[in-house]
Design a protein that fits this description.
InterPro entries: DegT/StrS_aminotransferase, PyrdxlP-dep_Trfase, PyrdxlP-dep_Trfase_small. This is DegT/DnrJ/EryC1/StrS aminotransferase family protein. This protein is mostly helical. The chain has one domain (2-77): Aspartate Aminotransferase, domain 1 (Alpha-Beta Complex). 44% of the residues lie in helices and 10% in strands. It has three helices and three strands. It has helices spanning 8-17, 43-51, 63-77, and strands at 2-4, 23-24, 52-54. Strands 1-3-2 form a three-stranded antiparallel β-sheet. Helix 1 (8-17) crosses helix 3 (63-77). The two termini are 20 Å apart.
């Protein structure tokens, strides 16, 4: 599950403190070595790479765990 939030680091830290692992989005493609030669501005790519977070999602994720994750997200973002 992908989310885009203003303060990704705050959400990541709060969820980790609750035992919920997340992953930051990959760096913007134009910032990676094979593409650094590409000229231009890519504000959407930059924004998403800096604000995107992957939440836990897998086939055996139970409803109770999903509820727990949602409650923790709400608490962190309050």
């Amino acid at each position: 599950v992908d989310v885009i939030v203003e303060d990704r680091d705050k959400l990541e830290k709060g969820l980790l403190e609750a035992g919920i692992k997340t992953r930051k989005y990959y760096p913007a493609l134009h910032t990676q070595e094979p593409y650094k030669h590409v000229k231009g501005k890519f504000p959407n790519s930059d924004y998403i790479s800096q604000h995107g977070l992957w939440l836990p999602s897998y086939i055996n994720l139970e409803d109770g765990t999903i509820d727990y994750i949602c409650r923790k997200i709400q608490k962190v973002l309050e």
